[in-house]
Amino acid sequence: MKNHYIQAVIDLIEDGRDPSEIIKGLKKNLQEKGYESILPSVLHGVLKRLSAKSQNDSTTVTVARKSDLEKYSKMIKDALQEMGVDDSYETCVDENIIGGYIVKNKNKVVDNSYKKVLANLYHKITKK
After folding, report:
1. CATH of the domain at 106
2. Would residue 73 be called left, alpha or beta, if left means φ above 0 and alpha means ψ between -120 and 50 degrees?
3. Which of 13, 80, 84, 91 holds its CA 20 to 30 A away from the CA of 33?
4. Which segments of 58-93 does DSSP mark as H helices, in order?
């Protein structure tokens, strides 16, 4: 039942309805049926699904430093073309990848980070 409410709210949002009106209507509907206790979990589910959907729709390039964008620009551009993506993407700086870059688009990932190379090397050396 909760999933039906979550999907209904998402459908209304995607149809362009006013989110505050959607929430008011949802709250009223749940109160009338005696289900007002599930309102927080429905709203949490809506946020979770919309967040996952927006992440899947966007292309992200992660680098360890801003300067790596320029340093790896040709390889990043090649990875984007390979994925069939134009040059529009979000940039994320994550020092944990040590160096290199990671390109993510929907379910595709090109991971040319130093962190991945070092982890693969570690696993190869320690595997017996």
Report:
1. 3.40.30
2. alpha
3. 13
4. 67-71, 73-83
